[in-house]
Predict the structure.
Amino acid sequence: MPTPHISAEPGDFAAAVLMPGDPKRAQRIAEQLFEEPRLVTDVRGMLGFTGEVGGRPLSVMGSGMGQPSATIYSTELYRFYGVQRIIRVGTCGGMSGSVHVGDTVVALGAHTDSSMNQQRIPGINFSAVASFSLASAAVAAAHGSDSVHVGTIISRDHFYSVPEGQPRKLADYGVLGVDMETAALYGVAAEFGREALTVLTVSDHLFDHSVEMSSQERETTFQTSLTLAVAAALS
Ligand code: HPA
C-alpha cells in the first residue's frame, strides 16, 4: 500500500536503496546502473527506481534536502517497504585540511546541531554511527586510495546560517565535512535496527575556495563515491 510520501507497492523496492539528495540524480544513477530502470514512486517529484546490477536487485531514490526530509523517506522505506540498508550518496562541504575538493568521504559517524536525534531518547546525546559492515565494504572497495577519507562529518540544519568560528572548531576535532542529512539517517536506521551508510563527494571546501570543479570533474569524482556506495549496497 502506498504511504503518505511514496506511491510504490510492497515489493517494489529492493532490500538495498541508494539515496542521493537530488531526485534527478536518482534518475541519472538509475539510468547509469540499470539496463531497465523501473520508476516505482514519484510523489512530490521524489523519484524512486528499481533495477538490477549484475543480476542483483537494487533501488535508488532521492531524499530531498535536510534531516526532516531524509527522515521521512528513510522511515517509510524501512517501516513499510522492508528496506534493509540505505546508502546515502551525496555531496559535502570539506572542512578538514586533509580533504580536498573532489575527494570522497565515508562517514563513520555524524555530529549534528539538529534536535532530531536528541528527541529520540530523552536525556541522551545519541551517537549517529554508520553500519560497520557497510562502511567496511565501502572502504575495501576504495583499495587504499589517498582521495578516500574515513571519519566523522557534521550534519547541520542551516545551510546559510553558520555560527562564527564553529566550522574551524569542528575541523580542529577532525571533522571531515558537512552535509545536511546523515545524522538523521543514522538515527532512523538505529530506530529500525537496519543498516545505513553515507558516502560523500567533497563538492566545495569551507576554508579553501581556490578549487572550482567543472561539471565534468564533478561527474567524474562523483563516480568514485557511487562505486563505493554500490559496493556497500551489494556487499
Ligand atoms: N553545507 C552543507 N551541506 C553541503 C555543503 C555545505 O557547505 N556543501 C555540500 N553540501
User: Anything to note?
Assistant: The chain is about 30% helix and 25% strand. Residues 27 and 224 are 18 Å apart (CA to CA). Residues 91-93, 156, 159, 178-180, 203-204 surround hypoxanthine (CB under 6 Å).
